[in-house]
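Table S5 (text form). Sequence records supplied for joint modeling of the two-component complex.
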Amino acid sequence: MKFKSGRLISLESLSVPCARDAKLKSGYLLSLEAVTAVFLLLIAASSLPLFRFQEDRPQDFFLCSDAAIVFSKSHAFADGSLQEKVQTASELSGLCIEAYSPLTSASSCEGEGADAERYAFTVPIWQSGALQEARVSCWGDR
Amino acid sequence: MCRETQQSRFRGYFSVDAALALVIVVFAYASFAYLASHAGASADEESRQISNSLVSLRFSSFLVEEAITKGTEGHSSVNELDLSRLLDLDLKGMLKEMAKSYAKVSVGGREGEIFSKWEGEAGEEVFCSARLALLNGEIVRLEACLG
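The corresponding structure-token record, covering 289 residues in total, follows.
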């Protein structure tokens, strides 16, 4: 407060922007910018996964189906050569391969790929004098 | 007294804000423009890669179908390759049909390459697809490439 010509007047009534007011206003504006910037940053960050390059390997699907056909046609489930053939197919295709029937099973990557995304095919096989179902699944790179 | 000094400081704060806002606008515009062009280029490149990979995959399926063993009664044996049929493949004719400049087919086993045949000149980009098949009872890898 200040006395002028013997009258009591306030700074507000003179509409004088004092340092304190100006500081407050600018501080408010800056914090608003900061909030907006953080908000925009969050939007940008949340949209980043949309631009991530996703590598699809359509040939893995064909390689896995080829492996299932090849195991079935080469009698690998019946003649005891399943593990060797699974290993060969895995080396040639670059995939981890697992094959199993009611009587036998083999895997090229033992104990791996529990959470991996797999391709799986069921093929008919002739085993122990009966028609059975065998399953071949493949995943990832070796 | 108070009015003059404080007003100039007040204006000073506002001009800093305005400058900051301008910087942010320019930066945001440049960022979005860059992001949009980069995303477009990336999508183009990705679709081109996928398209060429699928073409080579189809080519490999065609080759496997062309090279499989044919029985005497017209029956064919899926995924069982016949080396003589592979040798007879007309890659030159296929290139003409597909309007491509390079084609290669190779067959290999655990011990190494068994057969290889190509036609044309390999350009900057060659797309290959691998398949598994049987050759004389052994598992082999057939690779078909297109450029």
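Note: Chain A has three helices and six strands.
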